[in-house]
Amino acid sequence: MVEFSIIIPTYNSAQFILPCLDSIFRQSAVDFEIILVDNGSEDNTTSLVRNKYPKVSILTNKINLGASRARNQGLAATSYAWVLVLDCDTVLENNFLETASKIISTLPPGIGLIQPKILDAKQDKIYSAGIKMSFLKRFQDIGKGSLGGKKIDVSGYIFGACCAAALYRREMLEEIKDRYGYFDERFFFLFEDVDLSWRGQKKGWICLYDPRLSCRHHGNSSRMENYNRQFLSFINRQRTILKNQNPFIILLMFPLYLVYDLPRFFMLAVKFKCKFPKF
Which three-class secondary structure state does DSSP give residue 154? Predict the structure, then answer.
């Protein structure tokens, strides 16, 4: 059986963390360790965990350092060959880890990421079946908001994994780690999973979507304001492209990027009266 390191960042997550951990400890026949990294919560997140699950390792930050930094801290404290990264508001279906272990035991060596089927916690619709990339380097969750269907129920290779729930081969993580970490710590939140998936792809690693792995996810457990989310989505997409795209391709496609992105920037500036966050 495969052993798993499970990394969960938290931030004022008392409402969600126990159902998440309950779903993990219900798993059978698989060895795992859990590293919870708390980003300066002001509620009772950590005390809830310590009281009910004292075996969970907890790392605490005095302030919110962002999801990428928290995951990197968790990765530095683990050693198993496969890592499951979860958002704190994710609940695993029964036998998730046992099924993952069976899938991994038959994987070819080039698979570095595995994407489960992530369902919306409030309704039977798809939250994410992985990440897809368009010609203009727009990145979207596959199947988001749909009821699924044949395409969602078939496994296959995709661009990347959504880190609300994603499995990573440690060998890949070590190979693609750069001076900004496994997850790029400049990405305070959003697009860090896109960047990591793209870096893995450039090194020859493949992302597999497998719907036999299933979980549910609430979304926006941090309750980040909409203007922060939209601004970070915009700026981190630019960072992702500049970091990973071939410079010659960027130059060729610059007019198209300009046509798409410049109006979007001004729209955000007008909509939120230039009230952009500082991180």
Answer: coil
